[in-house]
Amino acid sequence: MIDLVKAEMFKNRLSKVFKHKNKLAKRQGIACYRVYDHDLSEFPFSIEIYETNIYIAEYLRRHGMEEDEHNNWLKECMILIEMIIGIPIENMYCKQRKRMSHRSEGQYEKLASEQEYFTVTEQGLKFLVNLTDYLDTGLFLDHRITRERIRQISAGKRVLNLFCYTGSFSVYAAAGAATSVVSVDLSKTYLGWAEKNMSLNGFTDDAKYSFIHADVKQYLKTIPPNSFDLIIMDPPTFSNSKRMKDILDIQRDHSELINDVLNASSKGAVLYFSTNFSRFEMDRDAIQSEQIKDITKATTPFDFEGKLKRWCFEIVKS
After folding, report:
1. What value, to the nearest 5°, has the Cα angle with vertex 196 and ends 163 and 164?
2. Which residues fall within 8 angstroms of residue 250, CB to CB, at 6 or more apart?
3. How far is 26 from 156, CA to CA, in rounded Å?
4. Domains in the chain and their CATH numbers?
5. Which residues share a beta bridge with 54?
């Protein structure tokens, strides 16, 4: 059972942040956003709204409770969440995860055998999210502003989306009238998901939109110069997948990856590079560009202010 004093603290905190963020979300026409992120140590949740559903990620901790006790505690927390947000418990999906300051390949793991997808809308575009089977939902809410930037500058561009995951950046690029969009990922599951997201928005022209199953590190070595005008690269911090020829360590490998992208790009091409490695340091001297701009703050949405531990850079080929 929740301690009554702590329950009141959680109720007051959640009420305050929900009132504030819900107002901003409605003003901006946003239906998928993060409400709460471990604001109180006694309630280590990330709570996100996906239209009529709630996704609750409980960060793993030593709570000292037996399983039945913990389950009862969690149910009482969900009752409080329902009371504040107004979405019923049957529309809540809860997962337990380790708290990470970065996205690693392990965070994309499948958790269950049955799959359940919901279609949500973000800024006029449709996406499939899965709140039951994976640790991540399929739509990284923290990149909402970055995605819109891509739509605004994609017209007439040849776009490359590396480590494309479920293809949300690809959808925005296509919506922005890109002449072509190439989506690359090592996972066939996510490439299939990306293709479904593109189809959901009417982008089905095989001549314009392609999906490549490849190890990005190796794939970049094969691209001829002057192949792309706009590139998005949001890699995991670390990956040692058996499907890769080499281990990916983003702190160690980022300059090589970025330079390979620039070598494959046209003059004046723009690369949006993002990483969730909180201790990341850009090796500017090793990168073959004099135009490297930190746009982390400018691409941080209202629901992640003060909570976001990711970096985002705009890099222009000279």
Report:
1. 5
2. 235, 236, 237, 238, 275, 277, 280
3. 32
4. 4-99 (3.30.750.80), 121-316 (3.40.50.150)
5. 49, 92
Average confidence (pLDDT) per 10 residues, the chain, 318 residues: 89 98 98 97 96 95 86 95 98 78 44 71 98 92 98 98 98 98 96 98 98 96 97 88 72 96 98 95 97 98 94 96
Cα 190 from Cα 165, distance rounded (Å) = 5
If you write DSSP's letter for every residue of 223-269 in order, what string do you get? PPTT-EEEEEE---SEE--TTSSS-EEHHHHHHHHHHHHHHTEEEEE
Cα-based torsion angle of the residue sequence 16, 19, 20, 25 in order, rounded to the nearest 10 degrees: 150
Amino acid of residue 224: P
Q: Distance of CA 21 to CAs 48, 49, 129, Å?
A: 11, 11, 21
User: Quick one: CA torsion of 170, 176, 178, 182, rounded to 10 degrees?
Assistant: 0
Residue the block writes with tokens 């026409």? 29
* Helix%, strand%, coil% for the chain, nearest 5: 35, 30, 35
- Identity of the residue numbered 284: R
> Per the structure block, which two tokens stand in for 218?
């190796």
pLDDT at 1: 67
Which residue is associated with the tokens 């300059």? 255
Q: How far apart are alpha carbons 298 and 304 in whole angstroms? A: 12
* Backbone torsions φ then ψ of 105, nearest 5 degrees: -60, -30
Specify whether the CB–CB gap between 213 and 191 falls below 8 A: yes
